[in-house]
Design brief:
The protein has 1 helix and 2 strands; from the N terminus they run αββ. It has 75 residues and is mainly α. The chain folds into 2 domains: 34 residues; 30 residues, no CATH class. Strands 1-2 form a two-stranded antiparallel ribbon. The chain binds zinc ion. Zinc ion (ZN) binds next to loops.
Length: 75
């Protein structure tokens, strides 16, 4: 009878610590930098890198840089 209670307690403790261990591992994985790039916060489009046109000297956001119309414009 006593052994049965002890076994039950052991099983419960095993499951409890197992869940704690898995939860901590998942949290560590979530915090690990570089694995997943967090999505940029809303409204941060203005913070993107700007590129300068060598020919006309205008600054444009790197992702949406467009040609200024000159034939030797790199964009
Ligand atoms: Zn240009």
């Amino acid at each position: 009878m006593f052994a049965k209670i002890l076994l039950t307690v052991a099983v419960v403790a095993f499951i409890w610590f197992g869940f704690k261990y898995l939860g901590r591992r998942a949290e560590l994985r979530r915090r690990e930098p570089g694995q997943r790039v967090p999505p940029p916060p809303p409204g941060s489009d203005h913070a993107e890198t700007m590129v300068e046109c060598r020919v006309c000297g205008t600054w444009q956001p790197g992702r949406t840089a467009r040609s200024c119309g000159r034939s030797d414009c790199p964009y």
